[in-house]
Design brief:
508 residues, alpha+beta, two-stranded antiparallel sheet, 18 helices, 46% helix, DNA-binding, transcription regulation, Znf_C2H2_sf, nucleus
Length: 508
């Protein structure tokens, strides 16, 4: 059965059920009111009491109702002690929302929910945390926040060990393991594990963004999204990491950051068993297996796995580079590359290799580097069988098979496989040398050339010959070294072929 047909059938069934639920609700109200009032009126007649008005009899019945009596929903079988509770419940089936906010038009099923919502417009936040000073509009949100300071998480998942502040949070989390998605969008057929996620999704169909930032004018679908955005303007960072001094404006950002320290990666790919810190990362990763690239550039036709990649790519066409370095004036398209560039000025490299002493800006770079020592090469070319330690290296290699060099230098006509290679080449023409030695005034076109040069000043020699123990500043020096113990050169096979004529005595 095709998806469009299935979706239309589901939508028709959904509309039919709504009509049926509304009919059942009206029928129940008429039947029960008639029966209840008849009982109340009959009792008064039998006892010789003057007949009550219909409204008086209704009030009398509610006050004198038998506590054991239950009002049962004919749709789902759920029972309630009061008829009014059943009426409110029936709105879940009919989606009736009779209480509407006169300020923003939002509707609610219960009057209490409307009153609670009105606090959003009044701006009232009566509940203040005495530990960090953060204020809250609602008592429940305030209590939930307090548990974030205590760190107490009493509800534990028996499948992955993750702990939660509330039983409700655990219940929602379990849908990750069961893959259950009971809440379906009636407009597009997409399903969700949480009702809140479905509601947020449905707002995106409407395109209405009622929540505006008064500082910059940006609008949002929900008040929660607006609050997250406002932390950019006020600079407030109430959440501090218990492992380091880093602070965050949002609790979810703190939780994500702390997983770096704990190494927690609860989301595992069922195809390759690779684990991820965030569920979103896993979803993006799964598209590698399916080959799905739903986001296509309308200018060049290139497709991407996630929309954020397309957004970054579009800046190539527009020439937009919003991230500018205050020290050297260099601009970048991506915030991640911009942050990496800032480290080149500070020289800070907090991640250290315990085998060769090499330092890195990012933990991910260190992780990739460790494959040099372990000889691990998990990424294999499907065309020639050659393996690589890094996925990006494999991608560059695969372009060499196609022979396509899309990036051309307008100064000399030389073409390159990647844009990064072209940029490095162009520095030959421009004379740009952005990397300056902190020990002398010498400058370099490439960061790796600077690192090699600085070893002259520091005396660092990270490349060792295991048999004789001699060390070198560069890998090329190690490869061309003739070991005193083995009497062999450390040359690679490709280098041996090139130097065979000039070095006839080289031993393999």
């Amino acid at each position: 059965m095709s998806f469009p047909f299935t979706f239309l059938a589901l939508k028709f069934l959904n509309d039919l059920l709504k009509t049926f639920f509304a009919f059942i609700l009206d029928l129940m109200e008429e039947t029960e009111e008639s029966e209840e009032l008849s009982e109340a009126e009959e009792k008064h007649v039998k006892n010789g009491v003057k007949s009550l008005s219909r409204s008086q009899a209704q009030r009398n019945f509610i006050l004198k109702r038998n506590p054991s009596q239950k009002f049962t929903c004919l749709i789902c079988g759920k029972s309630f002690p009061y008829k009014q509770s059943l009426k409110v419940h029936m709105r879940d089936h009919s989606e009736e929302k009779p209480y509407t906010c006169d300020q923003c038009g939002k509707s609610f099923k219960q009057k209490g929910h409307l009153k609670r919502h009105m606090i959003v417009h009044s701006g009232e936040k009566p509940y203040t945390c005495d530990q960090c000073g953060t204020s809250f509009a609602y008592d429940t949100t305030y209590k939930s926040h307090l548990s974030s300071h205590s760190g107490e998480k009493t509800f534990s998942c028996d499948q992955c060990g993750k702990t939660f502040f509330k039983a409700a949070y655990l219940k929602v989390h379990l849908n990750v393991h069961t893959k259950e998605k009971p809440h379906m969008c009636s407009l597009c057929g997409k399903s969700f594990s949480r009702m809140g996620t479905l509601k947020l999704h449905q707002k995106r169909h409407s395109g209405v963004k009622n929540h505006a930032c008064f500082d910059c004018g940006k609008t949002f679908f929900t008040d929660a999204e607006l609050k997250k955005h406002l932390t950019i303007h006020n600079g407030e960072k109430p959440y501090k990491c218990s492992h380091c001094d880093k602070r965050f404006s949002r609790l979810d950002c703190l939780k994500t950051h702390e997983k770096i320290h704990t190494g927690e990666k609860p989301h595992t790919c069922d195809q390759c068993r690779k684990s991820f810190t965030l569920l979103g990362e896993l979803k993006v990763h799964k598209k590698i297996h399916t080959g799905e690239k739903p986001h296509t550039c309308d200018q060049c036709g290139k497709s991407f796995t996630v929309k954020s990649q397309l957004n970054v790519h579009m800046k190539i066409h527009t020439g937009e580079k919003p991230y500018t370095c205050g020290q050297c004036g260099k601009s970048y398209r991506q915030s991640g590359i911009f942050k990496l560039h800032l480290h080149s000025h500070s020289g800070e490299r907090p991640f250290n290799c315990d085998q060769c002493g090499k330092n890195f800006f990012w933990s991910g770079s260190l992780k990739e580097h460790m494959k040099v020592h372990t000889q691990e090469k998990p990424h294999t070319c499907s065309l020639c069988g050659k393996s690589f330690g890094q996925r990006n290296t494999l991608k560059r290699h695969q372009k060499s098979h196609s022979g396509v060099k899309d990036y051309m230098c307008f100064d000399c006509g030389k073409a390159f496989v990647t844009n990064a290679e072209l940029k490095l080449h162009q520095r030959i023409h421009t004379g740009e040398k952005p990397y300056e030695c902190s020990h002398c005034d010498k400058r370099f076109r490439r960061s790796e050339h600077l690192r090699t040069h600085e070893r002259i000043h520091t005396g660092e020699k990270p490349y060792h010959c295991p048999p004789c123990g001699k060390s070198f500043t560069q890998p090329s020096s190690l490869r061309s070294h003739r070991c005193l113990n083995t009497k062999k050169f450390m040359l690679r096979s490709d280098s041996l072929k090139r130097n065979a004529a000039s070095a006839p005595n080289v031993m393999q």
